[in-house]
């Protein structure tokens, strides 16, 4: 189901709770909402009103990728980026990393399975932005 994008800073500034396999419907709504917005490249669950650690982003092929409970475990080559956000009116400057390693859970056959992924480029920047959302950091 396509949800409205949340702009309420009180909701967005709270750290999200760990996601479970029972939160699969939230992930589906997140993907539906992401695909329905031509300007969106990534979304976190709190941006659709759900305070769970679930994020979705579009890969290079334009396909949605969902990460449950993402966390940065390694980061290299910092740079300053100016990022826009669907939940905020103004863009802001933020430090990002060109190369990251992310731990996360993937939903496989109805269960969360731990995974790790190396990322760089636009996908890495998008996932860092989404992890900030999960932490209640407004960018």
TrEMBL record:
Family annotation (InterPro entries): Peptide_deformylase (IPR023635), Peptide_deformylase_sf (IPR036821)
SUPFAM superfamilies for this protein: Peptide deformylase (SSF56420)
Pfam family, one: Pep_deformylase
Homology family: Belongs to the polypeptide deformylase family.
PANTHER family: PEPTIDE DEFORMYLASE
Protein name, as recorded: Peptide deformylase
Organism: Adlercreutzia wanghongyangiae
């Amino acid at each position: 189901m396509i949800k409205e994008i949340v702009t309420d800073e009180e909701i967005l500034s709270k750290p999200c709770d760990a996601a479970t396999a029972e939160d699969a419907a939230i992930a589906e709504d997140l993907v539906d909402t992401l695909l329905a917005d031509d300007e969106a490249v990534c979304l976190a669950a709190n941006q659709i009103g759900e305070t769970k650690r679930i994020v979705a982003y579009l890969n290079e092929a334009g396909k949605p990728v969902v990460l449950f409970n993402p966390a940065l475990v390694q980061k290299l080559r910092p740079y300053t980026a100016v990022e826009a956000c669907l939940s905020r009116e103004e863009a802001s400057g933020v430090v990002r990393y060109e190369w990251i390693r992310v731990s996360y859970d993937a939903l496989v056959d109805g269960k969360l399975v731990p995974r790790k992924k190396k990322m760089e480029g636009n996908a890495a920047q998008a996932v860092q932005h989404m992890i900030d959302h999960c932490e209640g950091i407004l960018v």
